[in-house]
Amino acid sequence: MFFGGGGGRGGRQGPRKGPSIQHPLKVSLEDLYNGKTVKLAVNRKVIVGEPKVCQKCDGQGAVMEIRQLGPGMITQMQRHCDQCNGKGTEFKTKNERKVLEVHVDKGMKNNEKITFREMADEQPNLEPGDIHFVVQEKEHDLFKRKGADLLVTRDVSLNQALCGYTWKFNHLDKRTIVVKTKPGEIIRCEMKEGDKTIPFIKMIKDEGMPSRGNPFVRGNLYILFHVRFPEDNTLSEEAVAALRKALPEADVPPEYDPMEVEEVHMDSADLRHFGKGGAVSHSAGEYDSDEEGGAQPVQCQQS
Predict the structure, then answer these.
(1) Does residue 145 contact residue 29 with C-beta atoms inside 8 Å?
(2) 16: pLDDT confidence band, cut at 50, 70 and 90?
(3) Which of 10, 88, 114, 183 could connect to 59 by a Cys-Cys bridge, CB 3.0–4.6 Å?
(4) What is the pLDDT of residue 52?
(5) Confidence check: pLDDT of 281 > 70
(6) Are 113 and 135 in contact (CB under 8 A)?
(7) How far apart (Å, rounded) are the C-alpha atoms in residues 294 and 226?
(8) In whole angstroms, what is the distance from residue 190 CA to residue 201 CA?
(9) In this model, does residue 290 exceed pLDDT 60?
(10) Domain boundary at 208, 228, 248, which?
(11) Neighbour tally for 81: CB within 10 Å
(12) What pLDDT shows up at residue 2?
């Protein structure tokens, strides 16, 4: 009693609770952004009339059975009561169809539960269990979600990366938003963060998901850029001249005599093949002999 045990026993008072039921609830990212109420019908078993104590097992759910193994030998066994199916009571049930209004709150996350208390099947001497609707977030064509933040990946051309980029999209609440780079702003392939090289990412503040319980506080929208270079690996002389004039840090070839140096060009490569160049080496004893039948083992004789 001193430690809040409740009557000195410390256990749960009242009837035990029956098993709960879980139902998956697939929800779009739009619904998790805006909130939604859906009506779902569930079927449950309810008790008809008053349950009665099973006469066969006297409410124990099991009966004792005596068997004779041989002359003067008997054994006593306990087995499941087949009359009440081990429940200790006899009762009738009927199916009840119930329509539930399931409220999906703004900002709910994947695997969160929406609970309806004591709406599971009824059983004698037990409180009905709960029904849990488990939120399952559907994949979105545009956005990736983590917590309250959203992420979108955009491919931009080299022209857009250098000269300016504009992107129009419909947000999850159907607002039309136009994203623009600032005048003269460059979208890079990657950026430095201390000693690390990380992807080039921009952020639009407060355009992420609403927070559950406080939907006026929103996460952020992150944009990951991939700069797409021209598919044609060569440019016209006019394009090269224009770019060399417009862009800073143009190439300044060193002075050399083509007759005295060796000029080479580059081929496409895969970094996974780095370290695998050159001839395949063999350890000693693994070379094939030129003679038919291969090399013969050396034999030593002792006189």
Answers:
(1) yes
(2) confident
(3) 88
(4) 85
(5) no
(6) yes
(7) 56
(8) 8
(9) no
(10) 228
(11) 19
(12) 45
